[in-house]
Amino acid sequence: MQWSALPLHVHRLNVRLTQANDAFQLRKSRRHRPCRGLQQSALAMAVDGQHIMVNACTGKMGHATAEAVVRAGLSLVPYSFTGSSEAVAVGNVGVEGIPVELVGPERRQQAMEQAKHEYPNMIIIDFTLPMAVNDNAVFYCQNKIPFVMGTTGGDRHKLLQDTKDAGVYAVIAPQMGKQVVAFQAMMEMMAQEFPGAFSGYNLSVTESHQRTKADTSGTAKAVVGSLQRLGLDFSESEIKKIREKGAQLDQMHVPENALDGHAFHTYALTSPDGSVSFEFQHNVCGRQIYAEGTVDAALFLAKQVHDKTEQRIFNMIDVLKAGAMR
Fold it and tell me: Which residue of 32, 105, 109, 265 is most buried, as measured by CB atoms within 10 A?
């Protein structure tokens, strides 16, 4: 990550994240960096014999995460809870050659009892639908199963409160890409250290996702919150969503093969007289960055359960701070 001067005192910070190249890395001082040997030991302990259920393997994000679970050497539980219509229409699915049985709502308690018996240290990863978030979380809590909630939407306050009341271990985060989370944390730290530093500047925010994503990016909203504390007069409603293929290709320069799975964000800040500008970008092609981050979150959670930590609800900042990532 570098600052480079352009004409008219323009500065750009380009953070480009793809499956092949994670150009942005969270840099931690040596003083706070955990011992690498301890990191690897903790990771090996978590991987050994760890069972992961992914709900639901029928969706693109769930399927990508299930594949990441297998690549990490973890045991993929051969059940996946899904909607009743999906269970009937799709039947069973395969993940990296592993058959996974799709279980509809009417059978999920029976399947859960069997899974708990066969895989006693199981952790659930949830990538379902916003409308199912709260019901699924209550179900996991009732069964005392640790879970990683990667699905966005739902009543987030209720989600956190239900999980807290149940005393269940969980990682709850709307953004699972580690490097993107690190970028968000960097922006928030800057807002805390230098409030009002960009007072008077103008801001434009543009985000592009696959056309099936109807809502405004939660990541963009979070970064806008930090920029507001830096002095920018800007509302979430002003975030420009791009879902049209032509604009994605021509304006955002999304590769055509990534139109069905990408997250391109640009935050442009300009001084009142237009003589100085700053630009932040984080561009993601595909889903691998989120899938890998989710697996790291599950491994992190497994260690917290093993250590019986007092804190039981975590987010991706906690995962990053722990430092035991692959």
Answer: 265
